[in-house]
Amino acid sequence: MKKFFEVFDTLNLPKDIESLLTDTFVTRVTITRDRKLIRIHILSSHLIDKRTVYALEKAIKEQLFGRKEITVRIAEEFHLSAQYNPRTLYDLYRDSILLEMKNYDIVLYNMLTRGKLSWTADDTLSLTVPESNLYKTAAKKPAAKKSTAGKKAASGKTAAKADEKKPAAKKTAAKRTPAKKTAAKKSTEEKTKE
Question: How many Å apart are CA 87 and CA 121, to the nearest integer?
């Protein structure tokens, strides 16, 4: 783990962004095999607005990679003081969460902005959305990719409940999986005996 400007010492940034990164660390840098995506993992002891993160991605791409066909993504992680709980964090970071959600999945973004949010406890967020086939489909869709907003919410122990039937459906699917494996195992054992 190195300080941000030890890794990116030639990067020229506006003073406001530079000041936010003085105590930020780079924990890992990865690149895909096809060299089309570089992911930079950073750790900060304070919140960094998502617009700032996007501006930083753009600056790294332009200044370090020029015209090369490569995408730069920053995965931020925050180690915050105990004064933050999921509720206070959401209130402070709401605009960044919505911006990231809008770029991740527009239907989920619409659910968040049009739905009714209510805190049932300091660590549990409930989301009530209007009846809609589009929203039902989005709620049932498996999470193929996980946004950093989702990771932040998970690490902050924030739970969003879109509808009450979703957890039961997950339990049912989980119960079916071992049964299929057992049936396949028995089938294989029977073939082996023959």
Answer: 8
Rg of the chain, C-alpha, whole Å: 21
At residue 143 the predicted structure's pLDDT band, cuts being 50, 70 and 90, is low
Rounded to the nearest angstrom, the gap between the alpha carbon of residue 63 and the centroid of all alpha carbons in its chain is 26
Q: How many CA atoms lie within 13 A of 27 on its CB side?
A: 11
More confident residue, 161 or 6: 6
φ/ψ of residue 20, rounded to 5: -70, -25
Q: What mean pLDDT is reported for the chain?
A: 78
The token pair that represents 126 in the structure block: 């409930």
- Predicted confidence (pLDDT) at residue 157 exceeds the cutoff of 50: no
Establish how many alpha carbons lie within 13 A of residue 137's alpha carbon, considering only the half-sphere containing its beta carbon. Answer: 5
